[in-house]
Specification:
Length: about 325
């Protein structure tokens, strides 16, 4: 039994039953699959602006939005100088992607300068029974090098004294609800997610509304020492749980009957560099929900509380099971 005192003074007791950890071989296999998916193939040879990719082996009926973000960033990186790193990514999810079909990413260099670059990246897939293509994602990237100047950041709200490795694995929260959960959450993930409070996948009866949530995350295996790859994996992870904050404001679970959401757009501001195979704290909140839409925002911190990134996402929500919505669905069914 593990008890932890949060910054707000609340005492939390974690589930005593802990499933066995994944083997190192299985962990590396899952991470390697995501990395292999991110590494797109050039369709035009050296210097080309079109890239092809596949979908991860995750058991989803659509292409995961975080994968689209990561692949779009990888495509942009192939078209910019090596000293340029992403500073901001803004993406619109146009349609849900088909995981059975390959993806094509086309880079449009709006500006490629010595100190900075602005790119537009479009992800497309072939249409059913047609020679045409449909747009899945439109993203804009700002890239450049660091400069000397002002330097400050706001530390995380929570106490950073919690050891995330001692928190229960996500599987220990969910193991008693497997009959309600889709295959997505029952199989291994590339990222190890650790929650200090009950996650919103299946909330206990009588759970109180929460203004946000905190979780720690890291990859299940060591990632190659390629800074740009770590940026892409951070984009991938930023979309795993962000819309949870909207549901938590109303003490709603994703699986308490008919709840569904789709991501409309997603933005990431990259403040400082981090390794995704270090523990990162992800603080998430929802400032507003209205008209069937919900806004979620997040701050990502690296070791020692260093501010790594700010994330925002707008989603469209349904709580009655109606699903005729645009956008790329988040992994909830």
């Amino acid at each position: 039994m593990l008890t932890c005192i949060l910054a707000n003074g609340r005492s939390l007791v974690y589930p005593p039953r802990m499933p066995p950890p994944m083997t190192d071989a299985k962990s590396a296999e899952v991470v390697d699959d995501v990395i292999d998916t991110i590494r797109l193939t050039s369709l035009d040879g050296a210097g080309g602006l079109r890239f092809g990719g596949r979908t991860t082996t995750l058991s989803l009926p659509f292409v995961f939005g975080g994968q689209l973000l990561a692949q779009a960033l990888w495509a942009g990186y192939q078209c910019t100088p090596a000293n340029h790193r992403v500073q901001a990514l803004h993406a619109h999810f146009v349609e849900a992607g088909d995981p059975r079909r390959p993806l094509t990413y086309t880079v449009d260099p709006v500006r490629r300068g010595h100190g900075s670059s602005v790119l537009r990246v479009t992800a497309t897939q072939a249409r059913d029974g047609s020679d045409g293509e449909r747009v899945i994602l439109i993203a804009s990237l700002n890239l450049g090098g660091d400069r000397s100047g002002l330097d400050h950041h706001t530390p995380p709200v929570s106490a950073f004294g919690i050891d995330p490795a001692r928190l229960p694995a996500l599987r220990s929260w969910l193991e008693h609800h497997r009959d309600l959960l889709p295959e997505w959450w029952q199989g291994p993930l590339a990222f190890d997610l650790r929650y200090p409070e009950e996650p919103p996948h299946v909330l206990s009866p009588g759970a109180a509304p929460r203004v946000g949530q905190q979780l720690w995350m890291t990859t299940h295996a060591v990632v190659p020492d390629e800074p740009r790859l770590h940026d892409c994996l951070l984009a991938f992870a930023s979309d795993l749980t962000l819309l949870d904050a909207v549901m938590l404001r109303h003490a709603r679970s994703w699986y308490d009957g008919g709840a569904w959401a789709a991501s409309l757009d997603h933005s990431i501001w990259f403040h400082r560099r981090a390794r995704v195979d270090d523990w990162m704290l992800y603080e998430q909140a929802s400032p507003s929900a209205h008209g069937g839409r919900g806004l979620a925002s997040g701050e990502i911190y690296g070791p020692g509380g260093v501010h790594v990134a700010t994330v925002a996402q707008l989603g469209v929500f349904s709580i009655d099971g109606h699903r005729s919505m645009p956008g790329a669905a988040v992994p909830r069914d």
